[in-house]
Amino acid sequence: MAFRGTSAADLDPGGRCTRRVADAFHFSAFRNGRSEVGYIIGHNVVLDVRSTNEYDQLPALAADLISSHPAVLVALGGPATPIVKAATTTIPVVFSIGGDPVELGFVPNIGRPGGNITGTTFFTAQLLPKQVGVMRELFPKAQVLGVLVNPQNPRAAADLTSVRTAAGAFGIETYPANASAKSDFEAAFVAFQSKHVDALIILGDPLASRERKDLAEMTLRQAVPTVYFAREFPQAGGLISY
Q1: What pLDDT, in 10s, does the model give residues 171-183?
Q2: pTM, rounded to two decimals
Q3: Which domain holds residue 66?
Q4: Looking at CB atoms within 10 Å, which of 39, 59, 80, 103 has the fewest?
């Protein structure tokens, strides 16, 4: 999204952005936080929002935003951040991600990011071994751990390696299944069933966050205990998060 003029059709009478976004939960949190520091849509700031569930659309969306010459670009999520970073070296960029921005190559230093980019991280990748540990405590007899992976996420390979290492320490086999779109979920869960997974971990990813209700319902329907990366999943009906 960009701090730039939205059309009247995207603003409700209260000056709020009404354009549908793929992850309404996080966008709402961003909007509320911005209001708390005095940036009010329709009063002293306007937004131009671009959102998609298809990561291959991100370069075109970033170029479209940049063409409007916004004051600031905001990238919500790891997949969007490298696209926006590569697209401009002059417009200030603020990101919100779950991985290590230095390891991912977004900034050279956390304390002094330099350039035109800065942001926040939740370091969810560092919590993956703990998620495996929680799963082990709850289900000590588990022998096969399913891992739902979005291969388009720049953190996917490293996160999967972290889970495999942590699970291997307990003698647990891991079985990954890819899902880069909501339409891939069904096939992934069929694969989990065929491998008789005892439990499941869903790697941190914007797609999973957006579709948390459907994912929670699928894990319950298939009776596969699942450890999630954010509390919004148990709030949507899932089992447990860390």
Answers
A1: 999 999 999 999 9
A2: 0.70
A3: 2-122
A4: 103
